Every structure is written in structure tokens, then in C-alpha cells.
Amino acid sequence: MVLVQPTNLKGLRNMSAIEDRVCQKIQERAAFGFQKYGTTLLRTDLTTLDWLVHAQEEAMDMANYLQVLIEGEQRRLEKATNEKSKTFLPDSTAKRIEQADLNP
């Protein structure tokens, strides 16, 4: 794979290593797309509506991925909170709190 280096930066580095890695991934994704589809994003066979639908489909996929991660993080935090409260309270205190919650 050939990586294209920007020529308009005149040797200046104004990106962090994070941005460098993102650029690398974009180039790798473009190479993968070209191998799979035999074309680049400069194709002319799609209408504006086609591009919009493709973008919407990608955004919906991303929303699904985010939802999975959000729900996983919520479960992790709930579990950590429950474990923390159990860890720092003696059993007798925890039982009194539970009883107080049940019988206000």
C-alpha cells in the first residue's frame, strides 16, 4: 500500500500521533475499499441520494455500535456501584438499609 504524504504542509508537523493513526486508518480503509469495490470515492455512478442513503446507513450502524457500548458501560457501572456499596457496609448495616428502603 502506498501512503500519500501531504505536500502543502511544507514539512511542518501540526498533527498528534492520534491524528496520524487516524489518517493511517483512513488510507488503509480506502485501500480495502478499492480492493473490494474496484473504485475510489471519486466514482461518478452514484447520485446524491445514493450517497445520502449510504451515509445514513453508516450512521445507523454507528448508532447501534454506540448503543451496545453504552449499555455495556451502564451495566459495568451498576455492577461496580453495587459491589462498592456491599464492600464498604457491614452485612448488618446493609440489611438495615435494605429494610429501611422497603419500609419507609
Can you tell me about this structure?
The chain is an all-alpha fold and 104 residues long. The chain folds into 2 domains: 1-43, no CATH class; 46-104. Helix content is 71%, strand content 0%. The chain contains 3 helices and no strands. The chain has helices at 17-37, 48-88, 91-102. The longest helix has 41 residues, at 48-88.
Q: Give average pLDDT, whole number.
A: 84
Helix residue percentage = over 70%
Major sheet summary line: none
Count of discrete alpha- or pi-helical segments spanning 4 or more residues: 3
Ends distance: 68 Å
Assembly status: single chain
Q: Runs with pLDDT <50, length 5+?
A: none
General shape: elongated
The radius of gyration computed from the alpha-carbon positions, rounded to a whole number of angstroms, is 26 Å
- Would you report the number of β strands? 0
Number of domains: 2
Structural class: mainly alpha
Report the portion of residues in β strands. Answer: under 5%
- The helix-strand sequence is HHH
